[in-house]
């Protein structure tokens, strides 16, 4: 873990960083689900590092609880939602900017569920980013009016995701017609191995598309 300082309020927050074994070809900011910087998020950082990127995952709810972690049971979900409600988007974007500024260029951003929406906002408001890849970000559909990405964005959704109906991602498709939007034969959280909706083929395909997308905008 490393420690960073947010330009939003000068607060210190922690981040999980993984560097590749050789000189990085770029960097990726990996944004958490509501559950914190979990083993899943650390695994995604390791995957990007294995592909040659320096990867960093900020603990976006550190102001709520240092090293914030929440389980996937109802109590954990409630705790995670509390973390979301206590973390204004402006603060989250500022923390992401601190990560971008700490990494070697070119820098990209990705995120999962809540982090997918945060990645959309980073693409709209952060500087120093080349491209974004957003995974099953339900909240993106609520952020379209005042948040227009300034960089290329790719989107990933599961067609069996009960929490994200088709009208949600079709609204995003309509608002961002130039953003590739991929649908997978999977449910919500299909990249997380501990999830009942984990689907390795979908995760691997989405990761391949993401890495190709980042390489395109290097």
Walkthrough of the structure:
Helix 3 (89-101) packs across helix 4 (114-125). The protein has 218 residues and is an alpha/beta fold. Strands 1-2-4-3-5-6-7-8 form an 8-stranded mixed sheet, with helices on both faces. The protein contains 6 helices and 8 strands. 46% of the residues are buried. The protein starts with a strand and ends with a helix. It has one domain: 3-Layer(aba) Sandwich (Rossmann fold), CATH 3.40.50.1820. The mean pLDDT is 96.
Per DSSP E runs of 2 or more residues, the count of β-strands stands at: 8
Helical percentage:
25-40%
Q: How big is the Rg?
A: 16 Å
Give the number of domains: 1
Relevant terms:
218 residues; eight-stranded mixed β-sheet; alpha/beta; Rossmann fold; 8 strands
Task: Give a concise summary.
With 218 residues, the chain is an alpha/beta fold. It has helices at 39-50, 74-85, 89-101, 114-125, 166-175, 200-216; strands spanning 2-5, 12-18, 26-31, 53-58, 107-112, 129-135, 153-158, 181-184.
């Amino acid at each position: 873990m490393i420690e960073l300082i947010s330009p939003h309020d000068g607060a210190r927050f922690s981040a999980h960083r993984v560097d590749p074994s050789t000189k990085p070809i770029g960097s990726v900011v990996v944004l958490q689900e509501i559950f914190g910087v979990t083993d899943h998020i650390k695994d995604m950082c390791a995957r990007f590092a294995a592909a040659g990127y320096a990867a960093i995952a900020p603990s976006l709810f550190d102001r709520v609880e240092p090293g914030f972690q929440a389980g996937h049971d109802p109590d954990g979900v409630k705790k995670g939602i509390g973390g979301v409600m206590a973390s204004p988007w402006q603060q989250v974007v500022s923390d992401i900017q601190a990560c971008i500024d700490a990494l070697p260029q070119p820098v990209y951003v990705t995120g999962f569920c809540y982090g997918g929406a945060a990645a959309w906002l980073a693409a709209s408001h952060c500087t120093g980013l080349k491209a974004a890849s957003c995974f099953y970000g339900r909240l993106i559909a609520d952020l379209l009016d005042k948040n227009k990405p300034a960089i290329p964005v790719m989107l990933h959704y599961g067609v069996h995701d009960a929490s994200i109906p088709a009208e949600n991602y079709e609204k995003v498709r309509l608002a961002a017609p130039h953003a590739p939007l991929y649908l997978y034969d999977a449910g919500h959280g299909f990249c997380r191995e501990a999830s009942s909706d984990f689907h390795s083929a979908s995760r691997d395909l989405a990761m391949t598309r993401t890495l190709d997308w980042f390489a395109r905008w290097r």
